[in-house]
Amino acid sequence: MERIRLGNTVFEGRNNAYLIPGERPTLVDVGVATDSVRRDLRDGLDATGHEISDLDAIVLTHWHADHTGLAGELQAESGADVYVHEGDAGIVAGDPEALDAERQIRERRFEEWGIPDGPLDEVTSFLDGHVELQGDAVDVTTVEDGDRIAAGDGELEVVHLPGHAAGLSAFAFDGDDGREAFVGDVILPKYTPNVGGADLRVDRPLETYLDSLARLADEDFTRAWPGHRDPIDDPAGRARVIAEHHRERTERVLSVLDEHGPADAWTVSAHLFGDLSAIHILHGPGEAFAHLDHLVAEGVVERDGDEYLAADTEVDVDELVPVPETKR
Ligand SMILES: [Zn+2]
Ligand SMILES: [Zn+2]
């Protein structure tokens, strides 16, 4: 398997695509639809002795443009089958209903989070200005958890790990020294993947994501190949660190409510993250919302209209935000 490094000045930093050579040459994720990334991908494939027309399959971890942007044009050139989880398939396929549904949820959330007009204009024009990075529509083959996809000389198994995105899936395979997986943005080596703002369609985003971290830790992969930056040699350990990070964030959300509540998601976000710009105007209050929503569901925070207030009750943060146990 060959890692192909792609530029990405727009989102989380440099992207990875991965080529699985063999009888059925397969590409995992493809990068944003820009000229420079198009060149990166062509050069990267060339270095492995492949051309775009050689590709038989493309598997996409989730719908975000920095993972899917070039999929449509690569498919047009190669005739490759493109696989994506059913939860994200509509958006990747450019289905107007799926795109419209996402937009409607987004507009509703922006209003209920209380984003003021200035930042609202900024984030809306940022998102509208980046639509073309999503690239051409794709003729998708949908997959679900447990499905197997022929790739290279072997198979990839779909492991659905929603949270950061509704359809986000890892693709597991037998590596040299155990089970490994392409994980997209389920876990990243440096940053904590955004939850709550990155895909507004996800119900109970924090709880959903914590369940996925637990499952990932349980799978106990020997190595994970993320959508950004370097491979992760202890994926279960990284899942624990990210869960601990969310536990700390939940503590901070509760102390913000103690000091400043009742408060809406935008206000909580401002206390957590300060001033925000561009995509962070979506990710900051989204993350605050994911935590607030979880605390409401667990009965330790009350929601009144669009504002949140700490309930008068005992809080056990360890129970609210479980951290996966160590197996090894
Ligand atoms: Zn993503
Ligand atoms: Zn990403």
Verbal overview:
With 328 residues, this protein is α/β, with parallel strands linked by helices. The chain is 41% helix and 19% strand. It is built from eleven helices and 13 strands. The strands form three sheets. A six-stranded mixed sheet has the order 1-2-3-4-5-6. Strands 7-8-9-10-11 form a five-stranded mixed sheet, with no helix packed on it. The model has no long low-confidence stretch (mean pLDDT 95). One zinc ion binds next to loops.
Please write the string of helix (H) and strand (E) elements.
EEEHEHHEHHHEEEEEHEHHHEEH
| DSSP strand content | 15-25%
Cofactors, ions and other ligands in the entry: zinc ion
Poorly predicted segments: none
Name the overall outline.
Answer: globular
C-alpha termini separation: 27 Å
Spatially, the strands of the biggest sheet line up as: 1-2-3-4-5-6
Percent helix range: 40-55%
Mean pLDDT, as a whole number?
Answer: 95
Largest sheet: 6 strands, mixed
Specify the number of helices: 11
The helix-and-strand class reads alpha/beta
